[in-house]
């Protein structure tokens, strides 16, 4: 926390120094004091537009994470489908998500739909890639439990591969959560009537640089908060899984995960 505040203070100092030494007009680079004043004077306006962007970000983050986890599990449950779907997913990465924003706006209109869709795409691929990669790298010593118990494929995936791969999910979700506000703002730039991205465009058109930078500061704060929230949530999940799987042994001498796998033995 102290290091973060120190870095923020240093950034603001460099910003103010650039204003003094550069001699730039206020409509190009407003001083930090003007931006802070805009945050206070337009607090209600910024909160209104910020709430819209927050809804888009959270909806896209939840949907993108759910789709990424669901597809990762499905591809591990059905290896034949993975051989068909995975090359398509890799090829789809050649198309920048930002290019799709106007198309999604054309199809879904100017409401929350296209902004959430862009956010979903930016969250989905890091979550999917991180989880699939981590599930592929589960040690054979862990998978031997399923082989010895002759467990079906779905038990191996759900009770061994998925819990072991949660750190990979955490890494992918960190990236996705960082990109999520970017997706919402880009969707608002393409077509919207509300949101921080829309407010930035309107402020720029009216040469209100201080308001535009104030909205940008809120986008940065939102990005940091969403990333921290996502990281905390997955960290809690990992803690619960480790607690239930390693701290509470059963009377049979098996850990809960081993019991679940061996039920069909």
Please provide a written account of the structure.
The structure is a single chain. It is built from twelve helices and no strands. The protein has helices spanning 2-22, 32-41, 43-77, 79-92, 97-108, 112-136, 140-149, 153-164, 166-190, 196-205, 209-247, 256-262. The longest helix has 39 residues, at 209-247. The chain is elongated, with a radius of gyration of 23 Å. It starts with a helix and ends with a helix. The relative contact order is 0.13.
Structural class: mainly alpha
Over all CA atoms, what is the radius of gyration?
A: 23 Å
N-to-C series of helices and strands = HHHHHHHHHHHH
Helix residue percentage: over 70%
**Beta-strand proportion:** under 5%
Uncertain regions: pLDDT < 50 for 5+ in a row? 246-256
Tell how many strands the DSSP assignment holds.
0
Number of helices: 12
Estimate the mean pLDDT confidence: 87
> Oligomeric status of the shown chains?
single chain
Instruction: Characterize the largest beta sheet: strand count, sense, and whether it forms a barrel.
Output: none
Large-scale geometry: elongated
| End-to-end CA span | 51 Å
Main traits of this protein?
265 residues, mainly alpha, 12 helices, 0% strand
Layout of strands and helices, then pairs:
Layout: H1 2-22, H2 32-41, H3 43-77, H4 79-92, H5 97-108, H6 112-136, H7 140-149, H8 153-164, H9 166-190, H10 196-205, H11 209-247, H12 256-262
Helix pairs in contact: 2-11, 3-4, 3-6, 3-9, 3-10, 3-11, 5-6, 5-9, 6-8, 6-9, 8-12, 9-10, 9-11, 10-11
């Amino acid at each position: 926390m102290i290091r973060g505040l120190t870095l923020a203070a240093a950034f603001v100092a460099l910003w103010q120094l650039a204003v003094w030494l550069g001699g730039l007009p206020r409509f190009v680079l407003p001083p930090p004091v003007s931006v802070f004043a805009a945050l206070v004077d337009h607090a209600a306006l910024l909160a209104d537009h910020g709430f819209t962007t927050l809804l888009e970000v959270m909806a896209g983050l939840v949907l993108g994470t759910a789709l990424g986890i669901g597809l990762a599990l499905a591809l591990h449950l059905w290896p034949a489908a993975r051989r068909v779907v995975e090359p398509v997913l890799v090829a789809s990465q050649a198309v920048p998500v930002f290019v799709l924003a106007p198309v999604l706006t054309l199809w879904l209109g100017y409401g929350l739909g296209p902004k959430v869709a862009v956010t979903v795409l930016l969250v989905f691929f890091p979550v999917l890639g991180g989880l699939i990669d981590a599930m592929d790298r589960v040690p054979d010593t862990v998978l031997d439990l399923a082989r010895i118990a002759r467990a079906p494929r779905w038990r191996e995936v759900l009770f061994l591969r998925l819990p072991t791969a949660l750190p990979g999910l955490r890494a992918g979700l960190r990236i996705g959560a960082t990109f999520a506000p970017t997706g919402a703002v880009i969707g608002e730039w393409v077509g919207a009537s509300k949101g921080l991205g829309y407010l930035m465009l309107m402020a720029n058109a009216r040469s209100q640089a201080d308001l535009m930078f104030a909205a940008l500061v809120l986008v940065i704060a939102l990005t940091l908060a969403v990333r921290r929230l996502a990281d905390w949530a997955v960290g809690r999940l990992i803690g619960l899984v480790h607690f239930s799987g390693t701290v509470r042994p059963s009377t049979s001498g098996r850990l809960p995960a081993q019991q679940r796998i061996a039920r069909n033995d």
